[in-house]
Amino acid sequence: MELTTVWFVLIAVLWTGYFCLEGFDFGVGMLFPVLGTTEKRRRVLLNTIGPVWDGNEVWLITAGGATFAAFPHWYATMFSGFYLPLLLILVALIVRALGFEYRHKRNDDTWRQRWDWMIIAGSVVVPFIWGVTFTNIVRGIPINADREFTGSVLTLLNPAALFGGLALVAVCLLHGLLFVALKTDGEIRSDARTLAGRIGWVAVAAAAVLLVVLGLDSGSVASWIMTALAAVALVAALLLNARDREGLAFTGTFLAIGLAVASLFVMLFPDVMPSSTNAAWSLTVDNAASSHKTLGIMTWVGVLFLPIVLLYQGFTYWTFRKRITTEHIPPAHDERDWAPRRDRSPSEGAGV
Amino acid sequence: MNVDLARWQFAVTTVYHFLFVPVTIGLSAFVAGFHTVYLRTRNPAHLRLSKFLGKLFTINFGLGLVTGIVQEFQFGMNWSDYSRFVGDIFGAPLAIEALLAFFLESTFLGLWIFGWGRIPEKLHVACIWIVHIGTLLSAYFILAANSFMQHPVGYRINPETGRAELTDFVAVLTNKVQMVTFPHTAFASYMCGAAVVLGACMWHIHKKHVADDLPMYRTGARVGAIALLVAGAGVAISGDFQGKVMTEVQPMKMAAAEALYETQDSAPFSILTVSSLNGEQEKVAITVPKLLSFLGTGSFDGTIHGINDLEAQYQAKYQQAELTSSPSYTPTLPLTYWSFRMMIGIGMSSCAVALLALWTLRRRNDAPARSRWWPWLVGFVAVAPVLGNAFGWIFTETGRQPWLVFGLFTTKSGVSPGVSTAEVATSLITFTLLYAVLAVIEVRLTLRYAKAGAEPLKDPPDTPSDSSSDDSQPLQFAY
């Protein structure tokens, strides 16, 4: 296999890993207002993903870095072309991550509510914009002979792309529900299961419509097979959920997202950024790639270290494998009396 | 216009990001160190210090991580032509950083934070050490990428594609600029971590909240002060080597650091100059004879090239090539001159405070530590090394201008051609406002946790549990 193809596959793997893993923590974030009816329940939700969300996000950073190294032109065209959407993603990722990190740092309701909103907004906005972005990439965007994006932000907000955004949000929501059902116990577990049964079909329908629309445009035999398998996995997930098989149900959405993302990359290949202006101006694995020297070195690094990463991330999931319930949640982080009263500045306690 | 806005954005986001990076690198070593010592001594004070510093660490790590993503995306968003030109070389260290370092840091930090009572103690301590190693690896690869911009090696220009292509990756990773920059930055980061430890502990000695805790804070302060001084010596020595390499590969930067216009043998080092900085009117100058020559060349009689000579040389050398021409090859002098002095001055002052703290503690007489002016010193020493770091970066990055890759690629040719001024302005304003709000939150949280001090230990102290027996026990740590 050509090195350029190897790297196309590796980048597809990184994005797939990203959506399979961070997909469920986006879902958990979206569920805050739905399942998090009490403070204890919100903390249960938060702690199901507490030790792992940060590691999940690194899949994105690695996907970005690998694209830069292996396909500099892809990286340059995509990141400058999707300027404002990516700006929004960055802002959403920042406030969402800090919501996880800072929410528990003060025992103050106003403080917590504000961070809750950051978590919810961030968890919806990021997958929505990734959905918009990837739908646009697969369908093609206006790119000129100099490999520059020539449209505007309005070009990117076409109906199909917006639908792609909604579909990804719906799938992440389902993925998150099944994760919560798998990782918790008691009331919150049965609530998650019931809700997954109710809204799951919306996610299945949305994902199916999106993949068929994209497939009609640029599908191949391989991509149709993957799409079909993804649909089977998603339906199986819902059926298994109805039979209380949460572990298998979550595996189902995990596979479905993986197959769906993989099918998008199969539809793309050998293009990486198809030009809707002129097919001759499309960025392909060949004309967007780095030199063979760089790809060769990167291949060694990737082949040696990606398995190690999988190993220790797997260890984290194994370590924190127990179900969490409201009983496991210790009292709020700073219920002890803080610094002696005379040291408190007047601004404290008012929230920020 | 786009160049200016994109540069401002890079400056704002980088300096901000780099406020948290050195603190994270340095502090993780102290968290790991105290945790390890606890394992050997079973002295609860060491565990309390480790957990206390761990909280300050996570607050800073959070912001460092998210602002780091902005840095990665920004190359493609604002500097797409630069990304196309050097992606073959520059992208690799970035990708390797993510794969080797970021995954380690974030995964093992999660294990350390949530792992109390869940994983065997030794493995638990190993987790925080792995986090620390991850931060160092991160620094290494990012600095390797930056060193390529200061002194490009291991590449050739492909005449067909007009871009730089990798010929020798080992040369990129062992760039002579990198060999001096990495130790310099690592030591400077340890200074930052030590300063936080020293500052936080000195404050508690000053306040004397719980008299029983005084020995613990004294230990912390002493460790912080000694580490600050050792790291400070490391910074000075590595900085001296760096000065010589810089004089060799970027003579203009050394000349700009001193605002030295005429080439001189036995050049003096200027501590302070009040003048127009354009070489015409010098009103007051305090100088150390021959020191600049020594810093730059290792000999008191060495030749330091002046700005005028270098400018003429560069004009002749580069003006021909269409790709790399620039109206001037001299960086903004007040910026380089003052940031260089602030870097050195602030760094040295923090060492002076550390000495003073050590002296105070040695006499076992805390009277000076409880005087009214002490908190000001504490406040200064806690942030001084971070500021020194920031000025160091401002110096080294602005001193390279007008080049993006020295001698190869100018800054103005690197911006994204397809991005509008309105878009860059939007993101510049967005990041500036967002970062300002986050700074307020971060500072308040850090102060709050620093003032709260080390938590008393639960009884029994954090014994690792048998994995099966206590399923309904509350978690030892939860968000």
From TrEMBL, chain A:
Task: Show the stretches that span the lipid bilayer.
Answer: 6-37, 82-99, 119-141, 161-182, 194-215, 221-240, 247-269, 297-320
UniProt-listed InterPro entries? Cyt-d_oxidase_su2
Source domain of life is Bacteria
Q: Where is the composition biased (Basic and acidic residues)?
A: 332-346
Any one GO BP annotation for this protein: aerobic electron transport chain
Family from the record:
Belongs to the cytochrome ubiquinol oxidase subunit 2 family.
What name does this protein carry?
Answer: Cytochrome C oxidase assembly protein
Organism, scientific name: Luteipulveratus halotolerans
UniProtKB/TrEMBL annotation, chain B:
Keyword RNA-binding assigned to the entry: answer is no
Q: Where is this region: Disordered?
A: 454-479
Q: What is its main location?
A: membrane
Family to which this protein belongs: Belongs to the cytochrome ubiquinol oxidase subunit 1 family.
Which compartments does it reside in?
Answer: Cell membrane
Name by which UniProt lists this protein: Cytochrome BD ubiquinol oxidase subunit I
Molecular function terms from GO = electron transfer activity; heme binding; metal ion binding; oxidoreductase activity, acting on diphenols and related substances as donors, oxygen as acceptor
The alphabetical list of record keywords is: Cell membrane, Electron transport, Heme, Iron, Membrane, Metal-binding, Transmembrane, Transmembrane helix, Transport
What is its membrane topology? Multi-pass membrane protein
Q: Which domain of life is it from?
A: Bacteria
State the GO CC annotations.
cytochrome complex; plasma membrane
Spell out where the chain crosses the membrane.
15-40, 52-70, 90-114, 126-149, 187-205, 217-237, 338-361, 373-395, 415-441
Organism name = Luteipulveratus halotolerans
